[in-house]
Amino acid sequence: MSSDVRFTDFKSDKQPTWCPGCGDFGTMNGMMKALANTGNDPDNTFVVAGIGCSGKIGTYMHSYALHGVHGRALPVGTGVKMARPDIEVMVAGGDGDGYSIGAGHFVHAVRRNVDMTYCVMDNRIYGLTKGQASPTSRSDFETSTTPEGPKQPPVNPLALALASGASFIAQSFSSDAMRHAEIVQKAIEHDGFGFVNVFSPCVTFNDVDTYDYFRDSLVDLQEDEEHDPTDYEAAKEVILDADKEYQGVMYQDENSVPYHEQHGVTEDMSEIPDGAPEDAMDLVREFY
Amino acid sequence: MGGKAHHNMAEDLNWAVGGEAGDGIDSTGKIFAQALARAGRHVFTSKDFASRIRGGYTAYKIRTSVDKVQSVVDRLDILVALTQRTIDENLDELHEGSAIIYDGERSWEAEIPDEMTAVDVPLKSLAEEAGGAIMRNIVALGAACEITGFDVEYLDEALEKRFGGKGSKIVENNKAAARAGQEYVRENYDLDHLGYNIETTDNDYVLLNGNEAIGMGALAAGCRFYAGYPITPATSIMEYLTERIEDYGGHVVQAEDELSAINMSLGAARAGARSMTATSGAGVDLMTETFGLVATSETPLVIADVQRSGPSTGMPTKQEQGDLNMALYGGHGEVPRFVVAPTSITECFWKTVEAFNLAEKYQTPVFLISDLAMSVTEQTFPPEAFDMDEVEIDRGKLVDEDEVDEWLDSQGRFRAHAVTDDGVSPRAIPGTTDAAHMSTGLEHDELGRRTEEEDERVHQVDKRNRKVETARAEEDWDYREFGDADADNLIISWGSNEGALVEALDYLEADGIDVRVISVPYIFPRPDLTEEIEAADDTIVVECNATGQFADVIEHDVLTRVKRINKYTGVRFKADELADDITEKLSEEVPA
User: Fold this and answer.
1) How many other C-beta atoms lie within 10 A of the C-beta of residue A142?
2) Which of A226, B160, B452, B560 sits 20 to 30 Å CA-CA off B478?
3) 0.80 cut: is pTM over it?
4) Averaged over A233-243, what is the pLDDT?
5) Do B433 and A43 count as a contact with CB atoms less than 8 A apart?
6) Where is the stretch described as Disordered (chain A) (predicted)?
């Protein structure tokens, strides 16, 4: 790892096709800054993304990356990190990718506590398919497939993470660039699964959860309040608070033991001998 | 059925223990099988079982001979019956020379046909005298030793292996229990007229099943990562690796579902590990979602499908070769792949090694197709059958930092999907300096970035397909051959039917029928059988499915019709039964 890496080193020469003003620009910039600030470089970083507007991030960033199938980014990241503990793994996704088609993987990735970072670009809408309800859309949010609104409560991803045994839960806002980058950096530095739900407004299809809405309503846990993220009860309170939306680190388990420590998975699995292992005939002799 | 005892091609003995699931049937059978292997005898085992933890009939069957045995036959000589149902389920296989060991003190009244020899042994009482009723099956093994003239000492090592961890007292009690069974039969019965006498040799064999062979092959090949979701009959691959892979710095993860399992394996493979997942057909259904991504991102991955009876939940503990079409054609779009189907337990080992090499050399997913019959069958082999010095590792075009330069474009970007003559691109794994790149399931350019440009699309599709053509030209896709190469009758099979076919040859030969057997381990690419089929008067394709999936493929390849033998009862082919089926099929007209 070189010390002179700048966040622009993580930028590819491909121009994003996100709509002008899309929250994903800010989300990505913050991720790149956080990666550079934590001493990573493109050659030791692996970015995994799923499907949706968020999924395009691997193309616009410069690093090792895989743009996979819808909803399965977390398992891919898990495999990368287990095989290569030396690689920094950053998983990106959207609210549909992470909380709908990939919700099952989210629960189990949280439980496993693999030492990687998961940034969900939550715009509360399906943007790439042109404006259908997402799992985080409000219950009265009218869309082409829900003309009267979904009429079901939105998923609270932070609560889902908490219930699944998360060791790091945070929320940020793509437009608050400094805070967002800081929060992602904390997630990267966390010893375990660092989860950040990033409000990343869709300027084209969501006229409710807008920049103005978040600017006006967001309460910063560390700046506006004196929230202690290591206090589980306090974390529970803000996560389950239905009246306010917060940004900041809600919860961080100081005693988090990441998967690789729990299971002793520390080797670089890419290196293998030229033939069978030296003692391989012992494997055969076991069957006597 | 009366003739069965005389139709004894390999001087074999067929033994079984059966009872309720949960009665310790498996471990009892395995102890006897290991004892036979210690005595230098070959063993081929099969299991009848139901998908539940306790309750329901289950049996462990052993065919043993001093010669190699590789099939079950329709004959049972000695049966340890813990329930009446065990007897009833096997009436067709029992004959007038059969001996049935049972416990007359148990509550059920044994109904045993008069012509058979009933050997009533107070299994439970003798076990209690030896230290505990739990050892009643071991008492039965001792009784079986006496009937077959088999030295009870051969059981000792197997008992030590099974019970050694529980302390020497338990081991000694079990040895005493076996001897109690032996002595009881010696004192109360004169069974010399049955004529069973187990010959021993100086050989010493290993005993393993197909899933263990796949797991061992993976370790030999350098597999370091496995993610899977439990499913019958594939789980024992995962269990085998779980206990051993960490010795080599690897890891096994139990994923939350098969969708996750294949994606984790894919991630590990992109990170540079030799990686695999294994499942059965129902799991392949889910994994198919990611299959196209594996191929399009050109990621080396081995996916084992241990087939069971389908569709849907089907008969989950029963045999079938029903997934061939799925392996060949599964997934939307056109997905390049290799499909390899080992034909025996040793081949489960060698083809697994080969699958890892194919995957890495061609950066393509490899389906390794086995089946339930092979997964539960334990068979003896000389240890040299798995000679680890013969294992070769070929990682293909894996490039290191010094080689990266050759593959950079004019702007210094790594061409991970470079269009090459052989279709294979350089592969750089994370951490390789200056080779950072992305890949994707979207159609992409040489850099791995999305494109819908017509020429790029065509170049990439052609390149991926060209890898298969390169492999077709450079690798060995031969079939295995048995019987009389000049025979007019040609039998073609794929996967695990090989053993039953090879043994069926003996029966057919005894009836004066010459047959050439071609056993095909490569489904795609596969050998061209045009000449072989044209040279034969009659061609029969044998497989464990209803519609003849491989026969369809062969007919398509060769543009001719073939005869078919299909079995889809959920039970594997048996050598003697298969010989009868072939004789009958040869007399039929070729389909129009």
Assistant:
1) 15
2) B560
3) yes
4) 96
5) yes
6) 131-154
Instruction: Scan residues 342-401 of B and list those with Cβ closer than 8 Å to A.
Output: 383, 386, 388-389, 391-393
Q: Which CATH class is domain A7-285?
A: alpha beta
* Residue A279 clears pLDDT 90, i.e. is over it: yes
pLDDT in the model for residue B109: 82
- B415 and B376 inside one domain: no
B148: which 2 tokens?
A: 């077959």
Domain end among B204, B236, B268: B204
* B398 is a domain residue: no
User: Which pLDDT score is estimated for A223?
Assistant: 85
Instruction: Please tell me the predicted confidence (pLDDT) of residue A3.
Output: 60
pLDDT at residue number B56: 85
Q: Give the mean pLDDT of chain A.
A: 96
Provide the β-strand partners of residue A171: A197, A248
Sign, Cα dihedral of B35, B38, B40, B43: positive
Residue-range definition of the domain harbouring residue B415: 404-474
| B397 is a domain residue | no
Q: Do B92 and B227 share a structural domain?
A: no
pLDDT value at residue A72: 98
Structure tokens at B413: 């970007």
Whether residue B222 sits in one domain with residue B200: no
For B393-433, the DSSP string reads ----SB--TTTGGGGB-TTS-B-TT---TTSPPPB--TT-T
In the numeric block, the tokens 């003309």 are attached to A147
Q: Does A43 contact chain B (CB < 8 Å)?
A: yes
* Shared-domain flag, residues B89 and B9: yes
pLDDT at residue A136 tops 60:
yes
Based on the fold, state whether residues B168 and B80 are members of the same structural domain.
yes
Q: Which of A17, A60, A76 to mutate to test the interface with B (most CBs of B within 10 A)?
A: A76
Q: What is the distance in angstroms between the CA of the first residue and the CA of the last residue of chain A?
A: 49
CB pairs under 8 A between A and B: 212
Q: What is the CATH number of the domain that holds B20?
A: 3.40.920.10
What radius of gyration, in Å, describes the C-alpha atoms of chain A? Answer: 20
State the pLDDT at residue B53: 55
Q: Which segments of chain B have a pLDDT < 50?
A: 1-10
Mutation target for B interface from A89, A107, A270: give the one with most B CBs within 10 A.
Answer: A270
Q: Does the pLDDT of residue A1 top 60, yes or no?
A: no
Amino acid B50: pLDDT: 63
ipTM summary value? 0.98
Residues B255 and B130 in one domain: no
What local confidence, expressed as pLDDT, does residue B224 receive? 98
Give me the pLDDT at residue B3, please: 37
Per the structure, the count of domains in chain B is: 4
Q: What is the pLDDT of residue B85?
A: 92
Residue from the list A44, A65, A79 with its beta carbon closest to the beta carbon of B266:
A79
User: Smallest Cα–Cα separation from B230: which of B242, B221, B222?
Assistant: B242
CB contact under 8 A, A270 and B264: no
Instruction: Return d(Cα B589, Cα B592) in angstroms, integer.
Output: 9
Same domain, B559 and B469: no
Question: Residue B367 falls within a domain, yes or no?
Answer: yes
